[in-house]
Design brief:
Immunoglobulin-like; 10-stranded mixed beta sheet; binds copper (II) ion
């Protein structure tokens, strides 16, 4: 075995391994760029948000409350506006204890983190329905349209009932 053969063996054993590592790193790097580019348009694709809920009967036409459960299987989003033909104005409220007093505060938006379920419930976040066209009575169907920051609007019908439903109404 002459010196040249040993030299080439070294080249073949060491250098290609180094080159392979460099190529792999480059390929992964390029792959990352490729996937980032490939994934970007997906943000424009509608994300799946499902909603269900219930509303409390109103006392005459006084404001009443509704509670939604929102399942976000897409990316981070926010609930911005809720409308209903039965209500002149709907606000998203938080409900917190402050100095032993329950306080409601209007929220500009309700965060809906990616891959999570956001639940409104008594003594927590809720919808406040103002200016009812007619009193809400038990078993009445209440249509709602939800407007999100990213996801297209979602219309659903929730039921008016005195207590939380066991099986909540499904998205339409
Ligand atoms: Cu409220």
């Amino acid at each position: 075995m002459d010196k040249t053969t040993i030299y080439w063996q070294l080249i073949l054993c060491r250098v290609p391994r180094f080159l392979f590592t460099a190529w792999l790193a480059g390929a992964l790097g390029l792959g990352g760029v490729y996937f980032a580019q490939a994934q970007e348009p997906q943000a424009l694709v509608p994300q799946a948000i499902m909603a269900s809920g219930w509303a409390r009967p109103s006392i005459a036409d006084r404001p009443t409350v509704a509670y939604l459960t929102l399942i976000n299987r897409g990316t981070d989003d926010r609930l911005l506006v809720v409308t209903s033909p039965t209500s002149a104005k709907i606000e998203i409220h938080s409900h917190k204890m402050q100095n032993n007093i329950m306080r409601m505060r209007r929220l500009d938006a309700l965060p809906l983190p990616a891959n999570s379920t956001t639940t409104m419930a008594p003594h927590g976040n809720h919808l406040m329905l103002f200016g009812l066209a007619k009193p809400l009575t038990e078993n009445m169907a209440l249509p709602l349209t939800l407007y999100f920051e990213k996801t297209p609007p979602l219309t659903l019908t929730i039921r008016v009932q005195n207590s939380p439903p066991r099986a909540q109404s499904k998205q339409e």
